[in-house]
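Researcher: Next entry in the queue.
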Amino acid sequence: MFRNLLSRLFSDEPQPSALNSQDSEVAIAALLVRIARADDHYGKAEMQRIDEVLMRRRNLDASQAAERRAAAEMIEAEAPDTVRFTRHIKERISLEDRIGVIAAMWEIVYADGKRSASEETLVRLVAGLLGIPDRDSALARQGVLASMGLE
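Model: Structure for this entry, 151 residues:
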């Protein structure tokens, strides 16, 4: 499954096609895994938060979310550098969905209750690469912090 997704995601076709719903969710989940791994500590709290985000985004049950995260972990390990990876996602996911992805990324950053400069820097880079203005990313971050009681 994940080899086929990698080839669809990173093909050099001139007019990129939209990903189907499941493929786009696995690609987004892989981006969340990349954020979680940015500080070289990918722990249980981050895995659980990724599962929660996946359950909420597409109304999955816990085992479906864990399965999707496991596929995303394999995709993330094989995906190219963050710039190329994010560019391919941007080309295939709507703007509205990209803003939601940034909010989900902020959730992952703060899932373990610790600030990590490397994770925060990566979210800011990805937001720019996804075409999300700094202001929108900052608003998403503030919303996440408030919802998690970390303000």
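Model: Residues 19-147 form a domain with the TerB-like fold (CATH 1.10.3680.10).
Researcher: Noted, moving on.
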